[in-house]
Each structure stands twice: as C-alpha cells, then as structure tokens.
Write a structure and sequence with these properties.
The protein is an alpha+beta fold. It is 33% helix and 10% strand.
Length: 391
Amino acid sequence: MIVKGFRRLSPHKPVESSGFDGFELRLGDLMRGERATMGKSLLDVQRELKIKAAYIAAIENADPSAFDTPGFIAGYVRSYARYLHMDPDWAFDTFCRESGFATAHGMSAEASAAKRGKPVAPPLARDPIFARVEAGAVGSMLVLALLIGGLGYGGYSVLQEVQKVQFAPVEQTPLVVSDLDPLAGATAPSTGENDDIADLTGPSAEALDRLYRPQALDVPVLVARDAPISMLNPGTFGAYSGSGGVDPALAQAVEDAVVEAAELPADDLPVSGVQVSEDPLPGVQMVAVRPAWVRVQAADGTTIFESTMNKGDTFELPVTEEPATLRVGESGAIYFAINGTHYGPAGPRGQVTSNLALDAESLTESYAVADVAADTDLAQIVRVAEVEPSE
C-alpha cells in the first residue's frame, strides 16, 4: 500500500552576498591604505617619525609582542595615526580592541622591558644593617685600606730613617786644648792639720762671680774709631811743639792777623795768585753768511742740531768731552767764530763737507783767519757785530 504523504521542509534562509562595503576593514588595512596614498614606505616613515620600521609594521599588523617596551606602544600608535592624518585616540582604541592590548600602569611588571623568566626564589633573610652591603664594595674598601696603610707605613719608615742619628767610631781620640780647673783659687789653702772651722775662709764673691758667669757676658774692651787721632798731642811736634804746648807769642801773632783781616774792607783784601778753577774752554760758534743746510752730531751719533741756517744765523756749539761733527751742504756759507775771531769757510762753495770735528783746537789748526774783504756777506755780518757792541 502506497501511502502518500509530505514532509514539511525547513524554511529557506536567504543568503546575503557580501560586497565591498560589507567587508570589515581592520586598522592595519586603513593605515596601509593611507600610507600608500601618501606614497610613503616603511623606511620613509622610520626616517621622518624616528620610529623603527619593525614597530610600524607591528602597529599595522596589531602585534604588540614586537615591542621591547610595552609602555611606548600608546605613543607609537598615536604618533603614527597623527602622521597619517587619522584620529589618534580612535586609532589607539581600535588597536587595543583588535590586538587585545591593555594599557598597564607605569610601575607594574607588564610595563617593564625585562623579559619574564623563571621566578627567582626570595633571598634568605639577612640582617637589615648589612642588607644593602655588596661584596664588591667590601672588596674595594679593603683594597683601599691596604693601599693607605702601605703608603703610611712607607712614609713613616722613610721619616724614621731620615731622623736617625748614627755615631761613627773615631780612630783618634780628640785632644784637650787646655785643662782648666774651674775651682782653682776658689778655696783658700789650708794652714795646718788642726785648723779650726772658724778660721776657714770661703771663696770671695768676685771669684764665685767669675766662676759661674759665662765668658760671653764679660764686658768687651771698646776702642774708639778715632783713637789714634784723639791720642795725638799737638804740643809735642810741629809749630806748637814746646815744653808748654802752644807758643804764646805765635798765638798772639795769629790772633792779631785775624783781627786785622776782619777789620779790612772786602776791596782792600790781598789778592793771592792761587787759581782754584780752570779757565773755560774757548767757545765755538757757527756763523752762516748765506743759506745752508747743516747737521751737528755728537760723538755717540745723536743729532744735536739740524736745520737750514739763513744769512746771519748763528749756533753756539755745546762743550762736550769729545768734539761734535758737522755735515754741511753749502761749505762756503759757514764760518766759525772762536773768541771773536772768524775762521773758515768750512769748504769751497757748492761742495758738501762731512765729519768735520768742531773743537777749537782742530778748527784753528785746519782753517786760517777768514778774509773779510774776500767775502762781502761775511764783511756785512762782521760789521754788524762790531756796531752792535759799540751801541
């Protein structure tokens, strides 16, 4: 028997087709797209943001395990999002949601860059006083103490050797220069074996004083510096020699002469022929009868006078130990006046004269007395010089 029946089918569920808008975009895809739009590579971002390219790739892949320090992940993500012109807070929240990263406190163990290893067993309980003392510090202190002790001991040994006084044996015993008895003469000699104590006389005070007084305290013998002169007796020699010292007649004659000289006027005093000073050296004077350039130099090379002397100009030469020298451009225009007498000229006209000694002796020997009639310019100057004193 064939039974016809039917089976209720489950309702058909419509299948939704996913398009481009239905695809879920992750944070890394958005960041890579923005970076590609800007035309930047990972190395370009590393060079501009100063963040490693590996960290940039880890942000795009939502891999927080690639960072050495988890505490820097938030800053890296926000900086990279701000570089891509994205919202930094939204980017960081999305990164945490996709990677499962949670922000840790700065003092927590998760924020430390140290890798987690095997748990270390707690150290044994130690004395709190020595809890922070390290073995290396103790060793350094011991080495320093040994070094200081060694230096101190070495310095002390050297000081002891320096201050040590050693006595060397002497082969020859030193001789005694004088053997004096300090008590010699301090006691009086005994007069007999049965002298009484009352008759005993002790040393005098002067003897004891000389015994105990050092030699350095003795009064020195002073000799005056003018002792030889002060000891001279004028009555034993010379004009004043005689039995009674000064001759009364001679002393009266000297006194009368002094009184007579005091009463005379100054003009009536006798003039002695003794000359106490040397006659001054004759002066040398240069006389220019026409314009001429002259230069006078001392013996050491210094310039005493240098100028162009015009007609009638004169220059008095200073008196020096060594004579000065003259250089003149127009020798025929310069004459020398020595004690009122003119000598010269220095040379022919139009010539230069050099190294001419300007002392009176050499000038009078080298030049003759100037001929006034031969030089009219000189005659005018000499005539003027003769007229001026007469006026």
